[in-house]
Amino acid sequence: MSNNIDLKRGLDIPITGTAVQKTKKAVKPDVVAVKPTDFRGLLPRLLVREGDKVLAGSPILADKKSPEILFASPVSGTVTEIVRGEKRKLLEVRIKADESQEYVDFGSRKVAGLSAGEIKEALLKSGLWPAFIQRPYGIIANPEVRPKAIFISAFTTAPLAASTEYAFRDEMDYIQTAINAISKLTDGGVHVSLNSSNYSGTPFHKLENVVFHVFSGKHPAGNVGVQIHHVSPIMKGETVWTVSPLMLAAIGKLFATGKYDMSRLVAVTGPEASAPCYVQGIAGMQMDCIADFRKDKTAETRFISGDVLTGTNVGEHGFLGFYDNQVTLIEEGNKYEMLGWAKPFRTSLFSFSHTYFSWLTPNKKYEMDTNLHGGPRAFVMSDVYGKVLPMDIYPVYLIKACLAGDIDKMEKFGIYEVLEEDLALCEYVCPSKVEIQSILSDGINLMMKEMA
């Protein structure tokens, strides 16, 4: 049984570089990295030293606030470098992978006979507990909390995102195993959202032991935060968990095979990708592994772990994020255009506000770069955010409350319901060039500090 929700507001960004559904390469990374920066609010404690030998599944880090939450190595090999930043902040633990991979054996188990406590213990011990993201705030789920529900978005509308149907076509049995396991961790059920345009064509509609919801609309209809808002809004004092299909597949493999297996199909996308496609990769793999997919090696290219709206600029020698199965290659927009504001007939640029004539060619795709086409200016009141945000909140007032550090108003205007990804489109269309995601992140961090 499902309910149908039609979202009228949103925007699909017409950018070139969608990955064709073909796997062209199996990546075998020489070095992988475990990055504490992938996890909001984590205070990491190192469990290894340079030169230590590890197996795939060996604990690398622990959370100082919750020592039972572990972070494991995705490969077997040798810890070669511990990278620190300012004030000795831990940035990366780099591991040189062995030629032949060895795994910690956690033992395969039938989830039907396991209790909620045993499932939780298995996930904590294996390093897969960080798969659960807790809302509000988007932090790693608290093992001591029983959420009111668990939400999964089985489709994505983010720019150039990996197709869930293709990426997980061979892992549906693992995903079903994971759902059977995590359903024991909540009394409110596991809620799965599907896309109305492909409801019968996706293998996710055959899942059992879930509650279905069907969404239609443009991006951000695929964001789990938007879906939660329309199904079961988060009130003060409530907790929900989210988990992605990518993490579900890893959880299912743990119970089915006893291995911490973070392999995944990764979509190589973007205007600067010579042949957008999929590669067989692994969490923490280095961007050097996909260097041959770069269109122009002489151009200055941004390597993004994730999509162009919410991904992380990791650099050409950086590493894939823990939660990501997409890499976007896009040209750095560091070119100055003389009198650009006075050229309304530029057919190569897209405009949401009809500044250019892109609205006359709605099906055209554009080779976008990172140029902002202007600089920050006064933050004025506008209704433009409401045109792309299908949520019943006031984004302008929320962002201004974050700027002012006003906790009461942040609560009033919906801070518990949103993460940066939910307001990413607002930043994209912002006429004032305001860094909305950064401001919202600061507001969330303030809430975590003051409401702890």
TrEMBL record:
<comment type="subunit">
    <text>Composed of six subunits; NqrA, NqrB, NqrC, NqrD, NqrE and NqrF.</text>
</comment>
<feature type="domain" description="NqrA second alpha/beta">
    <location>
        <begin position="115"/>
        <end position="259"/>
    </location>
</feature>
<feature type="domain" description="Na(+)-translocating NADH-quinone reductase subunit A C-terminal">
    <location>
        <begin position="266"/>
        <end position="314"/>
    </location>
</feature>
<dbReference type="Pfam" id="PF11973">
    <property type="entry name" value="NQRA_SLBB"/>
</dbReference>
<keyword id="KW-0406">Ion transport</keyword>
<comment type="similarity">
    <text>Belongs to the NqrA family.</text>
</comment>
<keyword id="KW-0739">Sodium transport</keyword>
<feature type="domain" description="NqrA N-terminal barrel-sandwich hybrid">
    <location>
        <begin position="5"/>
        <end position="98"/>
    </location>
</feature>
<dbReference type="Pfam" id="PF05896">
    <property type="entry name" value="NQRA_N"/>
</dbReference>
<dbReference type="InterPro" id="IPR008703">
    <property type="entry name" value="NqrA"/>
</dbReference>
<keyword id="KW-0830">Ubiquinone</keyword>
<dbReference type="InterPro" id="IPR056148">
    <property type="entry name" value="NQRA_2nd"/>
</dbReference>
<dbReference type="GO" id="GO:0006814">
    <property type="term" value="P:sodium ion transport"/>
</dbReference>
<dbReference type="InterPro" id="IPR056147">
    <property type="entry name" value="NQRA_N"/>
</dbReference>
<keyword id="KW-0813">Transport</keyword>
<dbReference type="GO" id="GO:0016655">
    <property type="term" value="F:oxidoreductase activity, acting on NAD(P)H, quinone or similar compound as acceptor"/>
</dbReference>
<dbReference type="Pfam" id="PF24836">
    <property type="entry name" value="NQRA_2nd"/>
</dbReference>
<keyword id="KW-0520">NAD</keyword>
<comment type="function">
    <text>NQR complex catalyzes the reduction of ubiquinone-1 to ubiquinol by two successive reactions, coupled with the transport of Na(+) ions from the cytoplasm to the periplasm. NqrA to NqrE are probably involved in the second step, the conversion of ubisemiquinone to ubiquinol.</text>
</comment>
<keyword id="KW-1278">Translocase</keyword>
<keyword id="KW-0915">Sodium</keyword>
<protein>
    <recommendedName>
        <fullName>Na(+)-translocating NADH-quinone reductase subunit A</fullName>
        <ecNumber>7.2.1.1</ecNumber>
    </recommendedName>
</protein>
<dbReference type="InterPro" id="IPR022615">
    <property type="entry name" value="NqrA_C_domain"/>
</dbReference>
